């Protein structure tokens, strides 16, 4: 690799790593403690599950909407900035909420703004670092920040109660939005999208966002070879994950663990994720990203089974090591595989479906059904069912993308075959001509709903 390109790549990875540190620092303040916070507001296991399901239901619609907007704009930084600032404000409102109605409204707003942030950042990072194989090297620093912030938030929860989670969560969300705008810039001129060739307006943005909910656009992504079955497999895995992660804090507390122990459950897995994500390019070259996803699903299953059989919080903490393998391989593998399976014109939309919509559908089912099972049969039974579901998801991933061999864009037919430098003049890779045609048709459909230029109000220059 030429020295100049190497320096630009390392700089891009560093900038992306800083954004991931802010973003997943915010996640580290939220995920371990949100169930405790909702429980502190007088909700039982079923009530907590219902609000988590509401969060997931709203996210289900919001993720592809933000993705389509980012694809249409071309530069995802603007949507990320807006979403980050709105989410920070909504999360602050949640922290001030007391009644079930206000809690429901606040958590719905949080979901609608946060759902698209991670997929948009993922798609943007893959572009600026110049190669999807290096994605894990940037993403690893998000897991490192998750560990630090989870323990820091545990200290805040110990001092202020469950509401202490918002002390770090709110400012980190806002900082992630601003950081993405400042740091995730292209080193060269930004390639213009069809919408950017004209002045971006409010109704342009609204039309493009609603295009993300178009059945033709979503169906077009799912018709890309192997995507349909892979999305189903991901949904099964994230359903199991929701039924485990949504209630693991309650399980730890029920066995006598405190806030520090809960932080350890989530942080130990994240600690394992860091070296795995940093070494993901080497592992993927040896085993293939597709096989790593399968391995990750079965690692998740081992964690769930161990958590079901645990008799002390320390055993649940130890089992979270398997969760680190699961998340690193399933999440990074998914982003890596999807980025090579779909055309750049629908990257954010596809990532929104693969890592946003599937997580949301899984969270709806996992939270509602998991809450009902946990309340009726106990959390041990719930976690046992989750272990079996993880295994089923792994088998479906095998059938979708491993058994049939690697996808065409990932095939190592030539050196650097899987690396694309997103710079002026770089070739744009597409997996199928049909995928490109459907993306263009979706953009035209979104444009057909816009009003006359005289009635538009300026959104961005």
Give a summary of the structure in a few sentences.
With 461 residues, this protein is an all-alpha fold.
Per-chain topology:
Elements: H1 3-30, H2 34-40, H3 45-73, H4 77-95, H5 100-114, H6 117-128, H7 135-160, H8 166-183, H9 202-211, H10 215-223, H11 227-245, H12 248-254, H13 259-278, H14 280-287, H15 289-309, H16 313-341, H17 347-377, H18 379-402, H19 433-448
Description:
- This protein has 461 residues and is mainly α.
- It contains 19 helices and no strands.
- It has a single domain, classed as Growth Hormone, Chain: A.
- Helix content is 75%, strand content 0%.
- Helix 9 packs across helix 19, helix 10 runs antiparallel to helix 19 and helix 16 runs antiparallel to helix 17.
- The longest helix has 31 residues.
- The chain is globular and about 50 Å long.
CATH topology: Growth Hormone, Chain: A
What is the CATH C level class, in words? Mainly Alpha
Estimated share of beta-strand residues: under 5%
- State the order of secondary-structure elements, H for helix, E for strand: HHHHHHHHHHHHHHHHHHH
What's the N-to-C terminus distance? 36 Å
| Assigned CATH architecture | Up-down Bundle
**Rg:** 21 Å
| Number of distinct beta strands | 0
Helix-strand makeup class: mainly alpha
| Biggest pleated sheet | none
How would you sum up the global shape?
globular
Number of separate structural domains:
1
**DSSP helix count?**
19
- Poorly predicted runs are 192-203, 407-461
List keywords for this structure.
single chain, 461 residues, mainly alpha, Growth Hormone, Chain: A, globular
């Amino acid at each position: 690799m030429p020295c100049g390109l190497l320096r630009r790549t390392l700089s891009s990875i560093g900038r992306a790593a800083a954004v991931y540190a802010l973003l997943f620092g915010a996640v580290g303040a939220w995920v371990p403690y949100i169930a405790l916070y909702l429980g502190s507001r007088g909700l039982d296991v079923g009530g907590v599950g219902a609000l988590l399901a509401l969060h997931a239901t709203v996210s289900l619609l919001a993720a592809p909407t933000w993705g389509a907007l980012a694809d249409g704009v071309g530069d995802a930084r603007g949507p990320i900035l807006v979403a980050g600032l709105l989410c920070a404000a909504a999360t602050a409102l949640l922290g001030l909420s007391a009644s079930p109605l206000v809690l429901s409204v606040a958590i719905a707003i949080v979901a609608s703004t946060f759902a698209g942030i991670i997929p948009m950042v993922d798609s943007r990072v893959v572009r600026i670092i110049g190669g999807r194989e290096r994605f894990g090297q940037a993403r690893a620093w998000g897991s490192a920040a998750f560990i630090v912030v989870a323990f820091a938030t545990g200290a805040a929860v110990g001092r202020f109660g469950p509401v202490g989670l918002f002390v770090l969560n709110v400012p980190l969300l806002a900082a992630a939005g601003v950081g993405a705008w400042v740091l995730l810039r292209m080193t060269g001129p930004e390639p213009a999208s069809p919408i950017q060739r004209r002045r971006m307006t409010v109704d342009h943005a609204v039309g493009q966002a609603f295009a993300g909910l178009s059945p033709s656009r979503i169906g077009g992504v799912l018709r890309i070879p192997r995507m349909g079955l892979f999305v189903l497999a991901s949904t099964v895995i994230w359903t199991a994950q929701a039924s485990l992660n949504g209630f693991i804090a309650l399980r730890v507390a029920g066995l006598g663990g405190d806030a520090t122990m809960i932080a350890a459950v989530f942080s130990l897995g994240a600690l394992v994720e860091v070296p795995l994500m940093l070494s993901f390019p080497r592992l993927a070259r040896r085993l293939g990203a597709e096989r790593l996803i399968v391995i990750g699903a079965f690692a998740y299953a081992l964690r769930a089974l161990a958590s079901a059989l645990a008799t002390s919080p320390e055993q649940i903490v130890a089992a979270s090591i398997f969760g680190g393998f699961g998340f690193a391989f399933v999440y990074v593998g998914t982003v890596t595989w999807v980025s090579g399976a779909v055309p750049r014109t629908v990257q954010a939309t596809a990532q929104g479906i693969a890592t946003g919509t599937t997580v949301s559908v899984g969270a709806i089912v996992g939270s509602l059904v998991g809450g009902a099972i946990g309340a009726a049969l106990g959390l041990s039974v719930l976690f046992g069912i989750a272990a079996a579901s993880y295994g089923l998801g792994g088998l479906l991933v095998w059938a979708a993308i491993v058994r049939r061999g690697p996808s065409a864009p990932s095939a190592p037919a030539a050196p650097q075959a899987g690396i694309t430098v997103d710079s002026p003049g770089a070739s744009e890779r597409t997996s199928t001509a049909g995928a490109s045609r459907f993306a263009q048709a979706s953009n035209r459909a979104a444009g057909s709903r816009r009003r006359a230029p005289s009635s538009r109000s300026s959104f961005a220059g």
